[in-house]
Amino acid sequence: MNIREVARRAKVSTATVSRTINSSDKVTPETKERVQRAIEELGFYPNTWARALGSGRSNLYGLIISDITNPFFPELVKSFEDIAVQNEQEVLVANKSYDPARMEGCVRRMLQRKVDGVAIMTSEMDARLITEFQSREIPLVFLDTGKAEKLTSNIVVDYAAGVDAAVEHIVGLGHTDIGFISGPMMLRSARVRREAFIGCLERRGIGADWIEEGNHQVDGGHDAMARLLGRKTRPTAVLASNDMTAIGALGAIHERGLRVPEDISIVGFDDIQISAFTQPALTTVRLSREEIARVAFRALYSIRQDAGKGAEYGVQPALVVRRSTGRAPRGAGAAEREPVLVS
Amino acid sequence: MNIREVARRAKVSTATVSRTINSSDKVTPETKERVQRAIEELGFYPNTWARALGSGRSNLYGLIISDITNPFFPELVKSFEDIAVQNEQEVLVANKSYDPARMEGCVRRMLQRKVDGVAIMTSEMDARLITEFQSREIPLVFLDTGKAEKLTSNIVVDYAAGVDAAVEHIVGLGHTDIGFISGPMMLRSARVRREAFIGCLERRGIGADWIEEGNHQVDGGHDAMARLLGRKTRPTAVLASNDMTAIGALGAIHERGLRVPEDISIVGFDDIQISAFTQPALTTVRLSREEIARVAFRALYSIRQDAGKGAEYGVQPALVVRRSTGRAPRGAGAAEREPVLVS
DNA sequence: GGGATTCGCGTAAACGCTTTCTGCGAATGA
DNA sequence: TCATTCGCAGAAAGCGTTTACGCGAATCCC
Questions:
Q1: Nearest to B247 by CA among B219, B205, B226
Q2: What are the phi and psi torsion angles at A60 (to 5°)?
Q3: CA-based torsion, B219, B220, B221, B225: positive or negative
Q4: A91/A68: higher pLDDT
Q5: A15 beta carbon < 7 A from strand D?
Q6: Taking a C-beta distance cutoff of 8 angstroms, is the pair A297, A137 a contact?
Q7: Which of A178, A207, A203 has its CA nearest to residue A332?
Q8: How many CB atoms lie within 10 A of CB A2?
């Protein structure tokens, strides 16, 4: 079953069949219709590889993510795929699982498949591998870890604004003893969020006295929170670098017999699906996967159009208030000042 | 950059280069070494499409799942990919998102790419689409929804054993008023779990009086549990058809001001990652994604070997006891009988 | 030592499509 | 009426591999 059989059946040449498949305008409606019918009757599917080989275009985009096991990413993958499919493109997903060695293989596979562009949605990536793409003139888009230049665009997430909204909310509830559980400091994105937090408190004249490092996963959040609770003094509110961390923190707090938000308020970051269903539901800063995916795809797409010119795109996070945040407890340092704030 | 340039540089024919790439034994170590060097020096990657086109083999496996947003699946995808990559194969993932219309496109894409086999890890699938695969002699493996025949294998999950272990555990804790939140009844897998539950209780002479239908997602579990709690009498323990459902149920219980496990015990099914970190940590029946992926891949792989002969494989779930289950509360119907059971 | 066999490698024909080039008939203009 | 243009469709040359086939040299067996 190939294009030749279709051609024979429609009594045209293979070229004409190809042209109708690719909806070229150089074919009369009648012929087109005849070919369409032949295709239907034979149940013909064009062979993707032969197409790519012949045309030099793959209609394939690469998507590199850190760890498909973190719920943030499947949602991103899903959105990205949806958009790609709508545009008749395919997606090759590579999850490097925080393992630089695997990365090598992922990149190689993408190169072998001659992807038309790659969305690199992971924070750290070997510069050498990036060069591999660039030297082959493959468009790239980064998530907050790159710069707009020839053939590469960058999506910058306004973490500062997100963190600021969270702190604003917390402070508005009367908290002044505010902690932070960061991601792994080896990750740039984690460092950025941490800096944003510190800067945010400084601007308000609050000291950043309770900072612990997590690993952006549940266990790390749990352990970091446990360390925070083990200190002589403890914060009345804690921001986490992502929701997984916040969920871990929730667990550690409950284990100590404390209540959220009565004793401690918790704020996450990302707004993964599960966050709406934790006990209590998590107040968090939403980072829309759908939006990121859309922007990333558009970025890749338009690099081709604009003769390789890259651009910078912005994405704004938004605070989602649920049940894990409440007024600062009385008796805590914050409580003393509360009447002043309210009046 | 293609095989010809490599051939020229190594002063051999393209056939020899191809042979060394495919590690054929029909080439002397010296020549092989010379070719390898040329490949290194040129940084040559063979073009996947041309290979597939030339050989007729794609080294590509399809993986069809219901909904990548359910944490059960990303873990499955990840395992499957890992195994595939280890065997130098690729994976094309299609998530149909419970939407039969999208399914069509997924299947089409797989056919166009001439996948070497497809793992269908979703419960319901249009028979016509399956025929599409079969008529093209593509090996298939189902997850508990098919039968072993020519070119197709089936993985059967012993749901009955899993549910039985859960019920055993619950009954051992003195519960006799046991409820169940099923998945959507239009899904075969959901029906199977439900039947297993009912059969299980019958064998013990317990009535299955509290059954509600969920949708295998958190909101469905929440609503179903709310309905259960709204009845005149309520169970002291509830099994859920999957963990997402159980998590939703947990939320509904807390909203009513009841405690888990003091007032109601909850058991999930699947053991997704997050279940270890809910409040309280979920007692559940583990269904190993890693094992399913491994078996599925092996099944697909061996269909090729064994001249298209399909087989049946078994997977055993295992109970994981955490904190969401405890002794039946006194005062409940169960409590009356408890001393009898204990003595 | 001569014919049969094996071995290593090159030649060239697929594989299924795209795309450029070319040709042909019809429409248009003078 | 003939020359020119134009739109449509066919012929054929790729695209980068794999692989059947074949050839010469080396090896083997009696």
A1: B219
A2: -125, 130
A3: positive
A4: A91
A5: yes
A6: no
A7: A178
A8: 13
Q: Burial, B198: exposed, middle or buried (Cβ in 10 Å; 0-12, 13-18, 19+)?
A: middle
How confident is the model at residue A194, as a pLDDT?
95
A141 pLDDT exceeds 60?
yes
Which residues touch A74 (CB under 8 Å, ≥6 apart)? Answer: A68, B68, B69, B71, B73, B74
Q: Which amino acid is at B293?
A: A
**SS3 of A263, please?**
coil
Q: Please report the pLDDT score of residue A109 as a whole number.
A: 87
Give the residue, A227 or A95, on which the prediction is more confident.
A227
What does the mean pLDDT of chain A come to? 89
Residue A279, both tokens? 């006990």
pTM for the structure as a whole: 0.84
Q: Are A32 and A18 in contact (CB under 8 A)?
A: no
Nucleotide nearest to B52 (CA to C1'): D17
Nearest to A166 by CA among A14, A285, A62, A247: A285
Residue (of A163, A136, A139, A161) closest to A150 by Cα position: A139
Residues B182 and B191: their CA atoms lie apart, in Å, by 8
The shortest C-alpha distance from B261 to chain A (Å) reads 14
Specify the pairing of strand B283-286 against strand B318-320. antiparallel
Q: Give the per-residue pLDDT at B339.
A: 38
- Give the full edge-to-edge strand order of the sheet including A237-240: A210-213, A178-182, A237-240, A265-270, A283-286, A318-320
| Helices within A231-322 (DSSP H only) | 243-255, 289-305
Which of chain B's residues have a Cβ under 8 Å away from the Cβ of A73? 74
Cβ contact (<8 Å) for B49 and A45?
no
Return the number of other C-beta atoms located less than 10 Å from residue B195's C-beta: 14
Residue of higher predicted confidence among A101 and A157: A157
DSSP 8-state class, residue A54 = H
- Report the run of H or E that residue B38 belongs to, with start and end: helix B29-42
Which residue of B68, B81, B274 is in closest CB contact with A74?
B68
Query: pLDDT band at residue A334, thresholds of 50, 70 and 90?
Result: very low
Helices A3-10 and A14-21, axial angle in degrees (round to 10): 100
Here the tokens at position B227 are 């309905």
CA A211 / C1′ D30 distance in Å: 88
Backbone φ and ψ of A227, nearest 5°: -65, -40
Helix (H, G, I), strand (E, B) or coil at B240: strand
Strand D within 7 A of A36 CB: no
For chain B, 343 residues long, the average pLDDT of each consecutive 10-residue run is: 92 94 87 93 92 91 86 89 88 77 84 92 84 89 87 93 96 96 91 94 93 94 97 96 96 93 97 90 96 95 81 95 94 44 34
- Name the band, by pLDDT with cuts 50, 70 and 90, for residue A316: very high
Q: Residue with structure tokens 């064994």? A: B306
**Type of residue numbered A330:** R
The DSSP element (H or E) to which B314 belongs, if any, is strand B312-315
Contact across the interface for A85 and B75, Cβ inside 8 Å: no
